[in-house]
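Inputs:
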Amino acid sequence: MRKYLARRALFALGTLLGVSLIIFVVLRILPGDPLVAILGVEGHARMTKEDRVRIMHDLGLSDPLPVQYVHWLHDIVTGKLGKSFFRGDTVADLILHRGPISAEIGILALIVSWLVGLPVGIVSAVKPNSSLDNIARSLAILFIAIPGFWLGMLIVLALLFWFGYKSPLIIVHFWQSPWQNLQIVIGPAIVLGLAQGAYIARMARSCLLEVIREDYVRTARAKGVVERRVVLGHALPNALLPVITISGVLLGFVLGGSVAVEQAFGVPGLGRALVTAVIERDIIVVQNLVLLYAAIFVVVNLLVDLSYAWLDPRIHYA
Amino acid sequence: MSDQPVSGNRPDTLSRRTFLRAAGVAGGAALGPAVLHRKAEAQETPSPIRPDPSAKRGGTLRYAVHNAPAHFDVHQSGTVANIGPQSPMYDTLLRRDPKDGQTIISDLAWKYEISPDGKKYTFHLRKGVKFHDGADFTAEDVKATYDRIVRPPKGVVIPRTPLFATVSEIVVVDPHKIEFRLTEARPKAFMLGSFASGWNIIVRKKTLEENQGNLRQVMNYPGTGPFKHVSRQDKEVWIMDRNPNYWNKGLPYVDRLEIYHMFPFSPELGSAFISGKVDYARLLDPVSWRKAKEMPGVTAAAFNQSVIQAFWTNMKRKPLADPRVRRAIHLAMDRHTLVEVVKDTAPMQIGGFVYPFHPMSTPKAELEKRLGYQKDMKPAVQEARRLMQEAGYGQGIKGLDFVVRDIQTFKLWAVAIQAMLKEHINIECNLRTVQTSVWFDEAAAGNFDLAISAIVSTLMDPSDYFSAWYGQNGPQNYSVWTNEQFHSLTKQIDRELNDTKRKAMVRKAEDILELDPPLIPVAYEQIYDAWYNKVRGQNPSTYFGIYDVVRWDQVWLA
């Protein structure tokens, strides 16, 4: 197990190093001048060549690319993650301030997806092709098809025009005011959770339908075990493994989706910070946030893999 | 010109104090001619804004304006992202009266004198003014501030530098008196407008020295303004408290300012206002603004902004170098439709090459009778086709590269302009939408045939933007346009001190630009503000732009 863990950790590190290199190179070869955002349109228009050289030097952008990359890796290792080009705020501070909100949204979305997806999947599997199953499947397809940011905007507008309501404008952490914090995170969590719940429902249904036809389930029924126990106690645990796997993958979608959904809801989380940084061409913020998202994705998938052994005693890692 | 603030309140009864005050004013009026014959022209205002006795003290004003600034150096900025949240912490030498947004009144300078030859501006500074860190404000701070604006150090770019191009020397006469010596006289309104610009905040000499003249990453540098920094959360909110030691006693009225950063024209800003999460919203989108206008207890105002929306024609491309082709393109624009196209995205109005609301420009009613600005497009299109024929492009032009800045209004306009060019004069173009930063790279490098964007000026005065927008080597002359007649006229406009003569010259310049367009004007931006009626003391309906009256010291909460 330890060997397996070490091997996976090494692979994860390699993956992240590769990702960091790709992000770094892509951000630097993309066209566009970050000095437009820093100096503004008028300032940029009036900038002399000497000014440009000086400013690029101050920002550390005049160093050769390998040097810039090594500086960044050093910043990552020391936990500083560098400073925004613009206001001089450190990226670490940004993550510490906004990260909890995005993390809450991600975790809540995952909970919502399981709370909605699993029961719907079970009902659909237990009564396949019934009207209940048809409704559940239609809803699942609908929620997969609807873009999260669009649904988010509809919710925001409906709340505003019908109830004159808007969630708090600035970040309120859970420990500062749980009620206000909930108002910030609940909308994006539901929108993201419903979309992921639809995937989970479909996956749970197909897995459960497969397992339900297994011999040991038939045996349980033949022994007179009540149907609820047959489904929940015998069939479901074995059908859950693929659902857990997909949950890890879905977390990646939640992370990606949160960028647009946070924007739609006006939630000042990391996703929104990423959008602003892209608009501003704040390379340092963008590369660190993308790397952070990649790291979360890699770690979650590693945890999912490891959880197999715990969920299914037949699986052993050597 | 009088800089005295005008009081709108007339007492019902004549008290002894009122009588004496009136007698003093009358005496002053009688002495007026004698004062006018003095060597230098003196302007004096003891207090730029008199505290309103009916105003209520206290409360928190929640104001939403623009997204977060890219840096903190107001002098180096050109966006309301800085001036919106930072201005309440600073003062200027002179300022615009919040009553109308136009009249210039005193600020840190309580009096100024202009030498008869117009080449020396002397400012008498207030005594007893302190920076937020407790340091005394002196003429050395003004000198350090303006030395930096007039001649920025390397790596520091200040868009207002050209306003003071004629300032050769800044001399501290004594700790509360400073002189600006000019190489040649400039129109008084232009110079005073430059000193009153909200951008030219006074900062401490020591602050500049400690930061090598660059404040881009210095968040909280001390000012003398009515509000003091308390805290700031990046891209969320900037909080400041009333400065209890503000030199203008009785001001400001509100105890706390919370300034929220929100993207202009965004649904988020609109919803924050409509839901009552903010008391005052600036740069609302038209849909939210119209909704706000219908809300009880809310006032909505529209006012002029210092921005021209236009597209540039690359003079290095052969067909576009021909003024007849550019004039034809200019005439092919159905501007009334273009304003309509974006009416739900951003508020716009029709205009030509000079701000349509400037007293020296062709009045709007007259402008709309001209070809290119009329509602009926037929005569303009007819003339445009004739010009194309005459220039040898009667069959049209194909394959123009139209670079579009990735902003909603420009994207909407680009499609409409593409259709108008095709339909009216058979010019075909391919749209290429790019990010803002790429747009400026492409424009500066000349990698375009047509390119649409927007540019701003500090002042409404043509002497500010004629050289920047249309001047030879002007930083925003993306077309690389030249016209010797216009350039020589610009120099005369800059120097002419007589307003009537100047106006005639500006009109002549307009005529030149109409026939040989350096860019194609699309529209002039407007600003939509809305506020709950409990916010008193400010109505921006007559303001020009959002860069001068932005201090909130005169605003109170009912």
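The two ends of chain B are 34 Å apart (CA to CA). Flag for discussion at group meeting.
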